[in-house]
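queue> pop job 88
queue> type: inverse folding (structure -> sequence)
queue> payload:
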């Protein structure tokens, strides 16, 4: 068994455009609302059990479909969690706080687990991570990019 480099490598503009943040937050809110409605529907079926239009299996199936569509990165890496926990994680993501963390990270503040290079073409490549034995690195940069990725907030602000 040997250690592995675990991390996120992303590409984006050298300077983030704060004008994209409101659209990214609005998109996150729409996705969270969609998942929340189905999550509440599942809880209702579980507690009441007498809904003729919906059984628990169908309600859970609809919730899974919504998570796959609206939060695919979170859903794919959370196979050890049950559907309800994944739904709560997606609903509880605080988009504004995440974007503040992104601004700090992209500006080079507060992290020792990241490195980046700016290219003449106007873009930056950033890597955040560490050598581990297979578990997630502890660093602020890695954790921030992971939370942003799971919330689907990287692409709307131009980071891939």
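queue> result:
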């Amino acid at each position: 068994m040997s250690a592995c480099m675990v991390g996120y490598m992303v590409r984006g503009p050298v300077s983030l455009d704060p004008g994209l943040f409101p659209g990214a937050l609005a998109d996150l809110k729409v996705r969270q609302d969609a998942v929340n409605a189905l999550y509440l529907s599942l809880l209702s079926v579980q507690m009441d059990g007498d809904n003729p239009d919906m059984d628990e299996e169908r309600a859970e199936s609809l919730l899974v479909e919504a998570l796959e569509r609206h939060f695919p990165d979170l859903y794919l890496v959370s196979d050890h969690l049950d559907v309800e926990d994944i739904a709560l994680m997606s609903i509880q993501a605080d988009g504004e706080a995440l974007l503040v963390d992104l601004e700090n990270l992209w500006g080079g503040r507060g992290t020792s687990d990241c490195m980046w290079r700016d290219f003449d073409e106007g873009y930056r490549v950033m890597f955040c991570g560490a050598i581990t034995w297979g578990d997630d690195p502890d660093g602020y940069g890695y954790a921030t990019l992971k939370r942003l990725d799971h919330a689907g907030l990287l692409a709307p602000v131009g980071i891939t």
